[in-house]
Each structure stands twice: as C-alpha cells, then as structure tokens.
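Example with several molecule types.
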Amino acid sequence: MPASSLETIVSLCKRRGFVFPSSSVYGGLSSTWDYGPLGVELKNNVKRAWWKRVVHEREDMEGLDAAILMNRLVWKYSGHEATFSDPMMDCRACKTRPRADHVFAAQKGRDPKGIAEINAAIDAKELSCPKCGSKDLTQARPFNLMFKTSVGPVDLGDDSGLVYMRPETAQGIFVNFGNVLDTMRRKLPFGIAQIGKAFRNEITPGNFTFRTREFEQMEIEYFVRPGEDEAAHEMWIAERKNWYLGLGMNPDNLRVREQEKHELAHYAKRCVDLEYRFPMGWSELEGIANRTDFDLKSHSRSPENPDAVGELKYFDQEQKKHLVPYVIEPSAGADRATLAFLCDAYEDALVKEPPAEETARLRELVESFARSVGRREGMAADVKQRLVSSAESIAAGLPGTLPQLIGLMEDSEAATIEVMKKVRGVGEKIAEEHTRTVLHLHPRLAPVTVAVFPLKRNDARLVEMARGLKRDLQKSGIRAVYDDTGAIGKLYRRQDEIGTPWCITVDFQSLDDQTVTVRDRDSMAQDRVKATELGNTFATRLA
Ligand code: GAP
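Resulting structure tokens for the full complex:
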C-alpha cells in the first residue's frame, strides 16, 4: 500500500534520518526543514540525476552556478519588485491575515481582475473572513514575497545597501546569457541549467517540504529562435516527463496540466505544469513555461531600462542579423521532486500472516476504536466519517489490511481517541513482525546502494571479509555501508525502509568459495554471486 498520508512520510523521514524539523533544540522554525544523513544523499542523487540528464547527456546545454545575492536592479527589471507579491487583508475580528485573491475567488466564483476590484468588494461588504465569517476586513495590500537583506558592514536604515535573497534561480541565468554565449561559442538553440537555493516569504507554507520559504530549484533556460519556441516547448514537456518516469515514478501519479490564461505569470505566453498526485492531492511538481523574449529584453538597455550596460541579443549567422532569442523554461523544485519520489516509492506490505488469535484481538480493538469515534462529540463530521469508514474496512479486512492500519496508527486525528493507545500497543507489535515498510526507490536515487552484513558479528573472518567488500564497492564509486548491529532479518528490514536496493550477506560458505548472497529489496530473492563480480554487477544495474 503506498503512503496514504503525508504524516506517514513525515514520520518515516524523521525516524530514519531523512528530514528533521529545523532548529528543533529551540522549538523549531515553522515550515523549515533540515535534510539528515539519508535525506541529503537522496536529494543529492535527485540533483545529480537531473544534471546528468539535462547537462552531461545533451549536446545543447551548459551549466551555471550564479550568486544568490545580485544587484537589486535585476529584480527591478525582471518585474519582481513590482509584481512578485500576494494581496493580503486583515480580519479585524479574529486577527487572521488571509490571501485576499483566494477569498475573492472562493466567494465570488471567479478570479479578481486586480487589487482594486478586491477592495471594492471589501468596501461593499461582499467578502467575509474565511475563518470567522466577519465582514470587518481591512483593504487588501500587496505583500512582496522577496526576502530583504543588506550588504556592507552597517545597515544605515535606508535602502542604500538593500539586496534580495533571490526568489528564483532563473534571473541569474538571464543576466549571464551574454557571458555563456561568448565564452562557450554557442549557437541557437542552446540552454543553460542551474541548481540552487531560492527564497520566498511564502504566506502559506506547508505540506512538509512541498512549500517552504527556503528551497532549491533546478532550472533550465533554453534559448531558441523566435518561431521555433513552440516546438521546443513540446520537446521539453516530453523530455521532463520522461525524466521522472525513467526514475521509476508511477505514470498514474504524474500528469501534464495546461495552465489557464488567468494563471499565467506576467512573462509567460504559455505554461504547462507537471503535476504529481501527492497524498494531499494533485499539485505542481514543475512548471514548463514559454517566457518569450521578455527577460532578455527586460535586462537590455532601452528607453525603459537606462541602467543596463548593453543588450542581451544574438547574432544569427544564417540570417545575418541580431535577434533576441525566445526562452523555454523547465523549472523544477529539488525538494518537491525529492518528496514526490519518496511518496511514490513508499509501500507498507504484509509479508506473513499473524496467528489467528492475535488478529482477532486486534480486530476487536479496531472495531472498538470505530465505535469510540462514532460516539465522540465535537469532532468535525468529515474527520469522523473518514476515521470510522477506514477503521471499519481495516477491521473487516485484517490481517490483509495491516498496512492500512499502520497509516491509521500514525494519523494525528486518530491519536486523539483514547482506545487508539490500545490499538497501537497491540497493532505496532504485530505490524513489526508481519509487515515491512519498503521504499522502492530507483537504485540511482537510493541513499545507500548496497549494505554489507556479516552473518555473525563475533566472527572476525566474516567481519573482515564484509568490511573489505564494503571498502572495495565504495572505491568503485558505489555507495555502500557496513552494518552488524542486529540479526540479518532485522538488518534487511532497516535497509528496506530506507530504500537500499541490494543487501550482501557474508556467511561461512563465503569463506570457502568467495561467494556471497545478494538479496534484492523488491523481490526479496537471494542469489549467490562471486565476490569478485560484485562491482561490475552493481555498476551494470546502476547504468
Ligand atoms: N523561474 C520560474 C519559477 O520560479 P515557479 O513555478 O514559481 O517558477 C518553479 O517555481 C518550481 O520551484 C515549482 O514548480 C516548485 O517545484 C518549486 N517551488 C516554487 N516555490 C516553492 C516553495 N515555496 N517551496 C518548495 N518548492 C517551490
């Protein structure tokens, strides 16, 4: 069963060292996360796979790593200073600050034409606070999403040292267009790729690492002759979709969605979103926009931009004239892609049936939980209905529904029901012995590729051979770890839970014939392989 809720993924991430709440020793900082030892490996693998595919394996791409802090004028002429904002209003009654355009759209059934129309509706008392229903609302004001900081040793309290933390990596690419063109002697079409941090003071961050204020983007700006932009756009939509699928993403969980006219950013002629079916619903994974010649023109010297030192244009040898290229921009989030791969890979599976009396005891408790929820006062009707129907179907299907019970045991609403403590007391033990959690990550993404165990940790010969194998694999570029901190079955389960595709066990036969068992995470099949062939075997499987 795949992850039914984001809570299941959050819990695994915390338990197994993928992602921790940031600055937790001081109570944390809302919606900020730190990637732990396994998370950093996973996210690095996602970024590496992206770079390999879009830079190294193509003939028409170059890489870049631009600075986060840039001249403020970049953000003036990109349009971010004026337009990168959300309209907010305050509710004087309950002191919340909702997004005014969202409230307008929800209550009037269409998007507002601008802030003036929102404010007219507020004045006419046509809008109400989505939290408390009051119509005592302030006027909507634009709230810019760019984080400000200042350069230099002294903050003089004015704007003289003001710079922004970049809200997208894209502008670093546009302002380097001329540098890359000149130094790399590129001809159109060609693209520039960049991976890096971006910062947005999001009003409503949330859903774990899906929307945060500090995140990493993987962006491409692909420059083409005007007129060749639409074909290039189609090429990138197919290419980017295939990248996710090639790394094992379930095609049923990935879709292409055309943005409607009113959704388009000010610079875009067309934009297509790749959406993933996250536990909270279909949501944007990557946007692929046709930005036309908007950005290169904006950063070129003109009557509208007297600050630029020159023009960002291209001399077309074929046409013997200068032109301003059009740009196709596939813009992905490294954190979002990592989260999507995690959700997609997650599975709780029953591996063996528990004894009938244990199942009967658990069934009784889950039924009792369903009855308690039914009697509970003050619980929202939709939550009640969800918990009751899920508990009833789990109880009816046990032991086959043990994986679903794991999800219910991690549900924060379910935890508020007293009898859930008893369900967990019995259920967790049965689940521990009879189910396994597996991350079916693509081998190229898995934080650890191979784990090596000695059958017995108190036998020096087994330990020495296992440690030697680990070292040899690591030398040949395969991420390997050694572990002897439990019985083999337990070690397999631990590696399954973090997505390690292969485990090697060194046993007594290994000492005689130099073969080891290689256990496959997904099929759980075990093969005997010559120790000398391990490096080649895994390198071939990873290629
Ligand atoms: N240069 C175009 C651009 O930045 P965007 O749709 O705002 O477009 C591109 O962002 C991608 O960056 C999104 O599809 C998403 O994957 C990621 N992203 C944007 N805001 C994010 C946030 N607050 N937290 C995590 N990822 C975010």
